[in-house]
Amino acid sequence: MKKILITGALGQIGSELMVALQKRHGFDNVVATDIRKPPQVDGIFEVLDCTCSHRLHETVIKHDIGTIYHLAALLSAVAEARPQDAWRVNMDGTLHVLEAARIHGCSVFTPSSIGAFGPTTPADNTPQDTIQRPTSMYGVTKVAGELLCDYYARRYGVDTRGLRYPGIISNVTPPGGGTTDYAVDIYYSAVQQGKYTCFLRKDTFLDMMYMPDAIEAAINLMEADASKLKHRNAFNVSAMSFAPEHIATEIKKHLPGFTMDYQIDPVRQGIADSWPNHMDDSAAREEWGWSPKYDLVSMTADMISVLKNRFGK
Ligand code: NAD
Ligand code: AKB
């Protein structure tokens, strides 16, 4: 088979997607890449800056790549601190990946985000096709990325596919600087210290998803029957929607002494307030069978059990 290349493979999602794809397609068929060099990685690894188109083409040719999972990006909080870098990494990187795919005949998976929506988007039951006027640099690059992928599919016939991920919660690799990071940090702090200081207001609803569902969604979409896909590059997908006060209540069922206070970060609160409360993901369910396995209750039980074991609590 032609090999699979992952950009940004050392990040929160990439580190787990790499293992899932290795299990599914074999160790020798997955090429993990990142701008950083890992201390150690099991499998094929190349240092690759996605903004360097020459190195990208070279790597695609060298490993006979047929599919690219393009995960390299700067997330919302980092992008807001470094907007020009975010444009360069998120936009130039995506354009170079699409060009490599066009020239070498690859299919491409690119994750968009709830960040592709803005304050004028309907916040509840956010439709698949709706107003997208994001106010963060991250959101600007995510909308432009969705459109660019659509363009490459329509204009050049490149098989581009993608999801609008919500906040992803996981326990392998820490998140890389987003607005939804609180929903990961809270579990680590609850298990290790019994308390957490939250940077979002207690009533800030956002869509979320546990990592096993996020990984399965990406792989299922890439393996879906192309003739059934109408939306291709920006499927709304959600598994649950909650606010900080709800996750804290759920954690207390496992750790009764857990306490949470609040120190609001105005930048991340502003970003979160501009994002939907809960997306309608019926298009993903209808077009390729999206169906998450975890909700807040089952995810919390799993996160706490894994972290308690890890930290000997
Ligand atoms: P992350 O920040 O954890 O990882 C990103 C990786 O990209 C890092 O390992 C980093 O070293 C690498 N990187 C940065 N600049 C690079 C460059 N120029 N070239 C190559 N690699 C570079 O991010 P993540 O959470 O794994 O997110 C992956 C993708 O999923 C991103 O596009 C992100 O926008 C999207 N997404 C993530 C979430 C989430 O909650 N994690 C939600 C919605 C969308
Ligand atoms: C972020 O908060 O930036 C990401 C995302 C939802 O895109 N987790």
Characterize the main sheet.
6 strands, parallel
Strand tally: 16
Secondary-structure element string: EHEEHEHHEEEHEEEHEEHEEHEHEHH
CATH topology name of the largest domain, in short, is Rossmann fold
Overall shape: it is: globular
The bound ligands are:
nicotinamide-adenine-dinucleotide, 2-amino-3-ketobutyric acid
Give the helix proportion (percent range).
40-55%
Under CATH, the homologous superfamily of the largest domain reads: NAD(P)-binding Rossmann-like Domain
Low-pLDDT residue intervals, each spanning 5 or more residues: none
User: Span between N and C termini?
Assistant: 44 Å
Q: Averaging pLDDT over every residue, what do you get?
A: 97
Strand content: 15-25%
Helices and strands: which structural class? Answer: alpha/beta
Which CATH-level-2 architecture of the largest domain?
3-Layer(aba) Sandwich
User: How is the quaternary structure best described?
Assistant: single chain
Number of helices: 11
Order of strands across the widest beta sheet? 3-2-1-4-5-8
Q: Over all CA atoms, what is the radius of gyration?
A: 19 Å
Number of domains: 2
